[in-house]
Amino acid sequence: MNFKFINGFKVHGYLHEDDFVNDIKYKKVILIAMNAEKIANRNTNLLPIVNENLGYPDGEGCVLALKQKGLRSIKIPGSQFWLNLISKFHKQKSFYLIGSTENVIKNTVKKLKKDFEKINIVGYRNGYINDLEINDLINDLKIKKPDIVFVAQGSPRQEFLMSKLFKIYPALYMGLGGSFDVYSGNIKNVPSLIYNLKLEWFYRILQNPKRILRLHKIFKFLFLLIFKKL
Length: 230
Prior knowledge:
By secondary structure, this protein is of the alpha/beta class. It folds into two domains: about 5-175, no CATH class; about 190-225, no CATH class. About 50% of the residues lie in helices and about 15% in strands. The chain has twelve helices and eight strands.
């Protein structure tokens, strides 16, 4: 059994990234990045979406929680893993991209076509979608039939959208947060030293001071972890 329940969320663990790839390459499922903030917040509307699909350890806190429950796992940063998926499957599978601003999504598609020769991007659009446009998006997915759909809107908005889309057009979906902004160069990536020191969260606060308002969720997670309440 390669999963444990953490504060109600079913989270899968993997010792190697290739194990994760092999587990999902033939599946139609929603991949959901799990981190300390998401676990501590415990959005009851998000809970069934995670548990019916595949949550994976995107953050160090999630890795520690899995270890506490007896399951060893590496951290699998979604901001890097989506590009690894493309690298492995860009000549075999088709892709559809949803998210960020019109300028960012166009630059993302342009860069992907430059970085991955013969990549098959069957469609894309920005992440600003009203209720009326969701039906148009679903119809476009049904017509173009992508194998993998990346959705970069931020959590939990992207998970709610992926759940709606999946019910009508099943495929491999993955939520990416701000990954398109980083990949396109709109936002600076985390320096290697900061990443290796596991201070990515602090770097993101420096980039966007408004994130400091979310720190209480990290402290809540640490409290739950230390006192084994997860």
